[in-house]
Amino acid sequence: MGFGKTSAILMMIVVILVAISCHSGVEATRILKEDFARGNQYQTYSAIYEKAKYTMDLWLQKLPSGSSPSGPGH
């Protein structure tokens, strides 16, 4: 084995050992806001739903109406 091959193998072993030794567990918890469990949660949801519904109505009104132009396609 040449010096280059030996040093490459040694370098890979060192990198693997460092990766294994530095491996630490990740905390998988999230902190929730305290107001998340309040009673007005459903009112907020309703307001968001109404705004999304209104926005979709506006988008659908901008679509062209009528028959599709004839020609090649589906």
UniProtKB/TrEMBL annotation:
<dbReference type="InterPro" id="IPR040273">
    <property type="entry name" value="PIP1"/>
</dbReference>
<protein>
    <recommendedName>
        <fullName>Transmembrane protein</fullName>
    </recommendedName>
</protein>
<feature type="signal peptide">
    <location>
        <begin position="1"/>
        <end position="28"/>
    </location>
</feature>
<keyword id="KW-0732">Signal</keyword>
<dbReference type="GO" id="GO:0006952">
    <property type="term" value="P:defense response"/>
</dbReference>
